[in-house]
């Protein structure tokens, strides 16, 4: 460039400058000016924030204190939005100012490593949508549904407070630290900060956690599609639709993504409508009526093929479809909840919160609420996304707050809507759908007897309601449709039909919701298998160098087969489990996800400590301590509890004892074969719990060690990439502040040919 | 008055289309081309092969093949 630079006010004496001579325009608003604007409380600003606080406070009072016979859903929406706004405006601002101190004079990887492909500066609003679509999946939709058995209040508080203090903090920190390190992955950062032992434990934990998460997501799909010809047909049709879209983009009109997504969406709707017609025919209802085991095998075979096919053929087009559906459906649900404002008659806190005997997921509120709702409040998986694509696309450092913290708030809102949808259906219906077939016998009579026998006040379900609801949504039966997805679909259909179409449309909305969830999950299964395969190949490559070459076919295929076999085995175990599957396996999903969060936060804590910011260490240490206590105590209960419904090994002992005593049926297992299956499954689940918790303790311990060492030696080191001068400007948040507006106008006035920045090499 | 409304609607539709394209990544080639145009204008950068649109899209999915990204749960 060769130009001299103009050191203007606001530069803190290092080599970075605010203004760059060739354009003579600032690349960032002067920090002092930003600070002054931040601190200036105009009467209007005061009025707005007072209004937000009052509305938020009132909503919390309505939810937590007033607790009338019924609660209107609008209070959930207001409580969530107002709390998010306050958390974003004040808490994330505090983190930005004291802990992270982003510097917009510094170029982001998207600028200094720009290659026009993987590293490309992206508009912050677009990137927000992008990041949100990558983090939000089926998790925030399923967890809150299952946790609804404890009443509406515990889940609501955890989702809203948890995201502000833990989940969004994690996402923000990981995104920021990865961005400062050229977009390095969580695994690499763990190795850098925690050394070989901590880094290796983090890597193995990530791999095992991924397998569990893929398996349990697949289990949710299996449960939603079993005995549902309509669902099987319409979800099955997504495969040919995606193949068609892939070929269209590859050979016919490359790059016309919006166009083909709209075509794909229309075909998808046609598949849903067509599914209803086919399920009505004699042959359709027999041909597509599949049991759980068959569907599970179908998904396993599908998972293998999908993961070895080229991305353009299946994964990429389905990703477009899934993004399209995600944004559309979530927006639609938000609008519907605000317009319809359903009344919720569930208790604030149900008896299952303290007794721990709930049929949906066993265990008491602490710690099991916090592992049942992982996504939406605190999700470790996000750390993989926030250290993946997003940091390579960020335009300016200060935008990490809007994208990282803000994106997670948005996911939390999705979780709140899922909770509202699940709570808006009849409470008895909720329990009939979510109690395992082992308890209800899978029949209407059995379900009625079981649910009414739970002894909950105000619940009296009739066989007619169950039969009628099944008919309305176009299913054979809705008894024991566990896994959360069918319940959410009934809730969504229940809300949407009041807005569009009435009961006649309910079956369409139900299958629309099932399709929407299956689409995410199948994409997550496919992508998860691929990522796991690369991780495995990378590790195997240390022993057999040939495996490092990821395009070596035999290596790629065998590594894929190993990964599919691993999650497939867990899936089959869940599907055939005599105890019901989802209620025993779901805690493992939550624990796995939260342990990953603990690992990510541990890495963040070590980084903060090495920067010497001990005064603000609590921002990371607080959520880390919480996640560690929750997951470790949940794991310990799963391992050591003597209550068979909670402890895996207690269950194992109970069943093997019965087998030894020569009994031929025990509890919900009605044959020796089933009893042996329980013994096997509980052993596997118990061992997995031990592996998880051991790995997580190693990682947390090494992080504490690194933190302590940094404290002792008064460290002030950093593993960041060296600072590079930025040459572009963009506003930081969703709304453009007045100082930003002024500067933006100067940039806009620049002649076009001068706007391009010199790119990286 | 009326033309103002039409103009506003048109602007709104244009920004929705812009957003959707950005979200789905349809503008990837434009960004790539702009990046290379800027480099071509800069004498300190050596000349590079620039991919055609079709090559670019093929390359993009092939890169995803080599470097998979997980989707969240």
TrEMBL record, chain A:
Residues 72-634 form the CstA N-terminal domain. It holds the Pfam family CstA. Keywords: Cell membrane, Membrane, Transmembrane, Transmembrane helix, Transport. It comes from the Bacteria. It is a multi-pass membrane protein. GO terms for biological process: cellular response to starvation. The keyword DNA repair does not apply. The chain crosses the membrane at residues 46-66, 72-91, 132-151, 157-175, 196-222, 228-248, 260-279, 294-316, 323-340, 360-381, 402-425, 508-525, 556-576, 588-609, 616-637, 683-704. PANTHER family: INNER MEMBRANE PEPTIDE TRANSPORTER (PTHR30252), PYRUVATE_PROTON SYMPORTER BTST (PTHR30252:SF3). Belongs to the peptide transporter carbon starvation (CstA) (TC 2.A.114) family. This is Carbon starvation protein A.
UniProtKB/TrEMBL annotation, chain B:
It holds the Pfam family Sel_put. InterPro entries: Sel_put (IPR007423). This is DUF466 domain-containing protein.
């Amino acid at each position: 460039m060769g130009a001299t630079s103009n050191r203007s006010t606001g530069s803190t004496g290092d080599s970075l400058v605010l203004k760059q001579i060739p354009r003579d325009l600032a690349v960032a608003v002067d920090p002092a000016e930003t600070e002054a604007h931040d601190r200036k409380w105009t009467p209007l600003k005061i009025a707005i924030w007072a209004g937000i606080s009052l509305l938020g406070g009132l909503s919390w009072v309505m939810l937590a204190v007033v607790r009338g016979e019924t609660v209107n859903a609008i209070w959930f929406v207001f409580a969530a939005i107002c709390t998010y706004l306050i958390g974003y405006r004040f808490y994330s601002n505090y983190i930005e100012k004291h802990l992270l101190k982003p510097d917009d004079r510094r170029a982001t990887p998207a600028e200094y490593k720009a290659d026009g492909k993987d590293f490309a500066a992206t508009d912050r609003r677009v990137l927000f949508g992008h990041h949100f679509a990558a983090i939000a999946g089926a998790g925030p939709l399923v967890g809150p549904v299952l946790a609804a058995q404890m009443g509406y209040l515990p889940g609501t508080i955890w989702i809203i407070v948890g995201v502000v203090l833990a989940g969004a903090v994690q996402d923000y920190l990981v995104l920021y630290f990865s961005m400062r390190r050229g977009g390095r992955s969580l695994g690499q950062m763990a190795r850098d900060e925690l050394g070989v032992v901590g880094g290796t434990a983090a890597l193995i934990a990530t791999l095992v956690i991924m397998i569990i998460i893929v398996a349990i997501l697949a289990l949710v799909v299996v449960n939603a599609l079993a005995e549902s010809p309509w669902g099987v047909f319409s979800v099955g049709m997504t495969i040919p639709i995606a193949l068609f879209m892939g070929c269209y983009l590859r050979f016919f009109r490359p790059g016309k993504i919006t166009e083909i997504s709209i075509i794909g969406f229309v075909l998808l709707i046609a598949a849903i409508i067509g599914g209803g017609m086919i399920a009505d025919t004699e042959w359709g209802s027999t041909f597509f009526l599949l049991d759980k085991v068959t569907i599970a095998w179908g998904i396993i075979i599908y998972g293998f093929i999908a993961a070895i096919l080229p991305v353009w053929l299946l994964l990429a087009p389905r990703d477009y479809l899934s993004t399209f559906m995600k944004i559309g459906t979530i927006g639609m649900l938000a609008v519907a909840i605000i317009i319809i404002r359903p009344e919720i008659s569930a208790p604030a806190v149900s008896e299952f919160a303290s007794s721990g005997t709930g049929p949906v997921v066993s265990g008491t509120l602490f710690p099991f609420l916090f592992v049942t709702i992982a996504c939406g409040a605190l999700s470790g998986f996000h750390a993989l996304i926030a250290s993946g694509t997003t940091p390579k696309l960020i335009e300016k450092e200060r935008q990490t707050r809007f994208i990282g913290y803000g994106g997670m708030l948005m996911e939390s809102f999705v979780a709140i809507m899922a909770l509202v949808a699940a709570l808006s259906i009849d409470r008895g219906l909720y329990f009939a759908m979510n109690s395992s077939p082992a308890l209800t016998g899978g029949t209407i009579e059995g379900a009625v007897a079981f649910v009414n026998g739970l002894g909950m006040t105000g619940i009296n379900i009739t066989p007619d309601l169950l039969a009628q609801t099944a008919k309305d949504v176009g299913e054979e039966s809705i008894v024991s449709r566990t896994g959360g997805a069918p319940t959410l679909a009934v809730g969504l259909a229940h809300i949407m039909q009041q807005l569009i179409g009435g009961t006649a449309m309910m079956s369409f909305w139900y299958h629309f919701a099932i399709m929407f969830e299956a689409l995410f999950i199948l994409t997550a299964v496919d992508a998860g298998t691929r990522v796991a395969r690369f991780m495995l190949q990378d590790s195997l490559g240390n022993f057999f160098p040939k495996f490092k070459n990821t395009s070596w076919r035999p290596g790629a295929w065998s590594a894929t087969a190993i990964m599919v076999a691993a999650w497939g085995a867990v899936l089959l175990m869940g599907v055939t489990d005599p105890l019901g599957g989802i209620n025993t396996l779901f805690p493992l999903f939550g624990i796995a996800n939260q342990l990953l969060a603990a690992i990510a936060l541990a890495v963040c804590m070590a980084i903060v400590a090495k920067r010497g910011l001990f005064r603000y260490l609590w921002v990371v240490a607080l959520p880390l301590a919480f996640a560690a206590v929750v997951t470790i105590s949940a794991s310990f209960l799963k391992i050591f509890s003597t209550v068979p419904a909670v402890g895996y090994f207690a269950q194992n002992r109970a069943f093997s004892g019965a087998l030894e005593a020569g009994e031929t049926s025990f509890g919900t297992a009605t044959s020796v074969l089933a009893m042996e299956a329980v013994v096997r499954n509980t052993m596997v689940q118990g061992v997995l719990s031990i592996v998880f918790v051991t790995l997580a303790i190693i990682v947390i311990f090494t992080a504490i060690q690194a933190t302590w060492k940094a404290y002792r030696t008064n460290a002030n080191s950093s593993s960041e990439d060296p600072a590079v001068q930025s040459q572009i400007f963009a506003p930081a948040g969703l709304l453009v502040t007045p100082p930003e507006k002024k500067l933006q106008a100067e940039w806009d006035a620049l002649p076009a040919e001068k706007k391009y920045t010199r790119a990286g090499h | 008055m009326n033309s103002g409304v039409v103009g506003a609607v048109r602007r709104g539709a244009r920004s929705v289309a812009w957003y959707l394209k950005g979200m789905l990544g349809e503008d990837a080639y434009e960004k790539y081309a702009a990046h290379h145009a800027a480099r071509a204008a800069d004498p300190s950068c050596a000349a590079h092969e620039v991919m055609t649109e079709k090559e670019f899209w093929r390359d993009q999915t092939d890169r995803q093949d080599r470097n998979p990204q997980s989707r969240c749960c």
